[in-house]
Amino acid sequence: MKVFVKGYYTTKFGELWEKSLSDLIEEAIRGVLKETGLKLKDISAIFVGNMLAGVLDENLLLSAKINEILENSGIPIFRFEAACASGGVAFYNALQFSKAGKGRNVLVLGVEKMTDFCTEDVTSALASALSGEEQLAGLTFPGAYALMARFYLEKYGYTEENLAYISVKNHFFGSLNPKAHFQKKITLEQVLSSPYIAEPLKILDSSPISDGASAIILSIERTKVQVASCETATDTISLLKRKNLDEMLAVKKAGEKAFESAGVEAQDIEVAEVHDCFSIAEILVMEALGFWRKGEGGEKAKAFDLENPFSQRPVVNTSGGLKSAGHPVGATGVKQIGEIFLQLSGKAEGRQVEGVKVGLAQNTAGSGGLSVVTILKR
Amino acid sequence: MKVFVKGYYTTKFGELWEKSLSDLIEEAIRGVLKETGLKLKDISAIFVGNMLAGVLDENLLLSAKINEILENSGIPIFRFEAACASGGVAFYNALQFSKAGKGRNVLVLGVEKMTDFCTEDVTSALASALSGEEQLAGLTFPGAYALMARFYLEKYGYTEENLAYISVKNHFFGSLNPKAHFQKKITLEQVLSSPYIAEPLKILDSSPISDGASAIILSIERTKVQVASCETATDTISLLKRKNLDEMLAVKKAGEKAFESAGVEAQDIEVAEVHDCFSIAEILVMEALGFWRKGEGGEKAKAFDLENPFSQRPVVNTSGGLKSAGHPVGATGVKQIGEIFLQLSGKAEGRQVEGVKVGLAQNTAGSGGLSVVTILKR
After folding, report:
1. Alpha helix (H) ranges present in A52-129?
2. Residue A236 is nearest to which of B67, B89, B127, comparing CB atoms?
3. Is residue B71 over pLDDT 90?
4. Cβ-Cβ contacts under 8 Å for B342 (sequence gap 6 or more)
5. Which residue out of A44, A50, A230, A234 would a mutagenesis test of the B interface target, given it has the greatest number of B Cβ atoms within 10 Å?
6. CB distance A67–B369 less than 8 Å?
7. B224-280 residue pLDDT tens
8. Comparing C-alpha atoms, which of B224, B207, B221 is closest to residue B126?
9. Which residue, of A119, A197, B21, B26, has the greatest Cβ tally within 10 A?
10. CA-CA distance, B304 to B320, in Å (whole number)?
11. Residues contacting A44, CB < 8 A, separation 6+
12. Residue B69: left (phi > 0), alpha (psi -120 to 50), or beta?
């Protein structure tokens, strides 16, 4: 059965101190219903991606909590946790529900409320998605990605400057996205002179701690944008058990399956949202998906042309990516697919890439332990 | 597409101090593969129900952790959290994956490791599935079900004795199940003289804190036992917002949908596993599913005949239920469906109900905020 994207809504991402988890959930659901002209009774089920409400706030069973916000219609609601890929995994399962013929319209929601907690607690909670040994040894996600970055830079003879271009690009696009956490451009010099958080990664190589919620409605009724494929794969939880620190195997496997299911190749993709939790992550993902050859990423990142920002193919992270649009972890995977939907339906306003027909969204969990790759086409 | 149960394995439930969460996961997966004669490469995806690893142990992204235990095949793995219905919700989504044609064999795993933590911490972690207001007010699950029990007993003029029969029955069946946490019978007098944990509920009205893991393989290849239906519904998270404290609306709605989808009625069900986290819960669920009329439950519970324990229809909780078989929360929903599979395939050994063809499993989240009802038939 063919499944289509009917509509998308996202709250602004950022430090939304005046909004609770419930407020964000309600805004995103009401927003996407308004956008699509649907009522709650038209929705067969809700699939929710959320990582941290349990660990940070002893807040579980979101299914019933969301049903209560929605005036107790009794609708089936499911919550998924796959660390930073919780949103992508919710989308994947919503797609299977649609394909199984369980309902006409399905709502996918990603949500995270992070800024009510101090940075130490959030960093520790995020580290729940590392292996037990890595957690006990004191590793955090900046540390994990720093190990990958150091390995990559040394292996191919790149410098921190090569990484910095990723942040410059993503902030440029973020400056065009009114929903982005940071709507401002940054310069190469600013990135390079920002303080280290885990050498060689600096604060401006890193996505922020954000609040936000994003929602998509999938439908079996034809719209302009079809879900061509959505696939997932896993890798080891531990960096230690991987053959190469610079090879994201789950991304590679999920990507290969997604290209095959959709019947397209990497060169057919015109716009992509990829998981740039740290600058190095975008480079490794672009290589794993076959957009760039192995080891070529540092050079390709540097080749981004601020004078012709829409000239590359694919154009990557027009939302601003996680770096500039923000990274409310459960919401990210949904926002990425939503941004591709906006691009393919010509609704990306100030950052529209003209005439695009095929786009891809890639969502990573943890240090690469799971990935979801989704391809949409007009 | 028709989907069948190919096999089932469960670890023993209990205080398994010598086994970690990973050990339990590995035993259940290897056990069900051996039981069905399948290899890991024959499995298309794994659907995992787990409630507490995040809250109790900062242990998230089980998908990648399980993939690592399974020698890094990269298989898609998804984790579901719906409090005590995490296992049922994992089963529900695995079924949609099968019906969507995504794979021949799918593995459903439920797992919980609870006894490594002190009772206060486990009680508090479980309370994450109450509303924020209920948590702040100090309500726990024994307290929530005590409110329901008090309401029910007063409304219909029953006494604590009516509740106690449920525990006597479930311990009788548990004494026949070698995988049960408690394999011993108890008497009415023992239940009635056990200490209160939240009046009118006593310790012997309550399911224990247990460790355990259960696994089922669903297949599109015909076996003796078909999944006739699996449905879910939600209710409010808060007791306060319900019209009647003794009416489990999510159970009722999920049950009505499941009976309709399967084309059977309550009187067709010959064996049932229902969610008896507390004795009152079994009574309210039996009424909500239409097995017993509203208000009749106290009397029906008392009518259980220890001399003819298999004479009622349906025979309820032959596994011992949560009360006697134990309640490793993420595993419970999977074990319930597994027990019905054993009964329908004639493999329930010392507790086999002869000649049964249709069975039902009902799994509750929290104080009734979500329920999953599954019907299997020969």
Report:
1. 53-57, 62-69, 86-99, 119-126
2. B67
3. no
4. B8, B348
5. A234
6. yes
7. 999 999 999 999 999 999 999 999 999 999 999 999 999 999 999 999 999 999 999
8. B207
9. B21
10. 14
11. A75, A76, A97, A102, A103, A104, A105, A106
12. alpha
| Summary mean pLDDT of chain B | 97
Judged by CB atoms closer than 8 Å, whether chains meet at B235 and A72 is answered as: yes
Gap between the Cα atoms of B378 and B373, Å rounded: 17
Strand pairing category for B271-273 and B358-365:
parallel
* Residues of chain A contacting residue B129, judged by C-beta atoms under 8 Å apart: 60-61, 64
The pair of three-digit structure tokens given for residue A229, joined into one six-digit string: 């494929």
- What angle is formed at CA A263 by the lines to CA A260 and CA A265, rounded to 5 degrees? 80
Average pLDDT over residues A324-338: 98
| Minimum Cα–Cα distance from B121: chain A residue | A58
Question: How large is the ipTM?
Answer: 0.97
Is the pLDDT at A305 greater than 90? The verdict is yes
Query: What pLDDT score does A27 carry?
Result: 98
Residue A251 CA to residue A268 CA, distance in Å, equals 18
- pLDDT digit string, tens, across residues A35-62: 999 999 999 999 999 999 999 999 999 9
Q: What is the 3-state secondary structure (H, E, C) of chain B?
A: CCCEEEEEEECCCECCCCCCHHHHHHHHHHHHHHHHCCCHHHEEEEEEECCCHHHHHCCCCHHHHHHHHCCCCCCCEEEECECECHHHHHHHHHHHHHHCCCCCEEEEEEEECCCCCCHHHHHHHHHHHCCHHHHHCCCCHHHHHHHHHHHHHHHHCCCHHHHHHHHHHHHHHHCCCCCCCCCCCCCHHHHHCCCEEECCEEHHHECCCCEEEEEEEEECCCCCEEEEEEEEEECCCCHHHCCCCCCCHHHHHHHHHHHHHHCCCHHHCCEEECCCCEHHHHHHHHHHCCCCCCCCHHHHHHCCCCCCCCCCCCEECCCCHHHHHCCCHHHHHHHHHHHHHHHHCCCCHHHCCCCCCEEEEEEEECCCCEEEEEEEEC
Which of chain B's residues have a Cβ under 8 Å away from the Cβ of A102? 96, 99
Residues A167-199 have pLDDT tens digits of 999 999 999 999 999 999 999 999 999 999 999
Total residue count of chain B as it appears in this document: 378
The yes-or-no verdict on residue A71 having pLDDT over 90 is no
Q: How far is A60 from chain B (nearest CA, A)?
A: 5
Q: pLDDT tens, B137-171?
A: 999 999 999 999 999 999 999 999 999 999 999 99
Which pLDDT tens digit goes with each residue over B167-202?
Answer: 999 999 999 999 999 999 999 999 999 999 999 999
Task: Please name each of the domains of chain B with its CATH number.
Answer: 4-118+210-218 (3.40.47.10)
Average pLDDT, stretch A262-285? 98
- What is the C-alpha separation between A372 and A259, in angstroms, rounded? 12
Encoding tokens for residue B327? 């309640």
